[in-house]
Amino acid sequence: MNECLDYASFVALVDDDEHSTHLLTRTLVDQGAHGVQAYGDADAALGRLKAVLGDRSAAQPEMIIIDLKAHSGANLEFLCAIKELIRHNHVPAVVMVQVPEEQGRRILLENGASAVFVRHRERDAYRRVAADIIEFWAQTQRPEAVGM
Q1: φ, ψ for residue 36 (rounded to 5)?
Q2: Residues 55, 87: contact at Cβ < 8 Å?
Q3: Residue 2 domain flag
Q4: pTM listed for this prediction
């Protein structure tokens, strides 16, 4: 029996704001994402990621987008909580931040983020960031995910 199941690729979105989740999901799909699954806030997402990434037969995300706003360190805190999971499962995690601060970016990258993107309020800039995330996702696809 083949242990590698063929599921449609998707990104897991970790977001603690319902409006933001809806907007980012819609924008990502408009920009070419095949699927986006909302994993909820940090607590819900942590439980779900542990279950999904721990089960080889479950559909696993090809990328995780972290966009937490509960407090200034929420993204880093969550990233640290999943660092070993994403490393072990080779799942890239990207983080959305409000302010593009070099030191904060570097800390996120040192703690497991594959990329850091700036969350913009202006609609066209927001769409461009979503397109950049999709492009990053396409460039980081695992070979087994694309049939290689």
Answers
A1: -130, 130
A2: no
A3: no
A4: 0.87
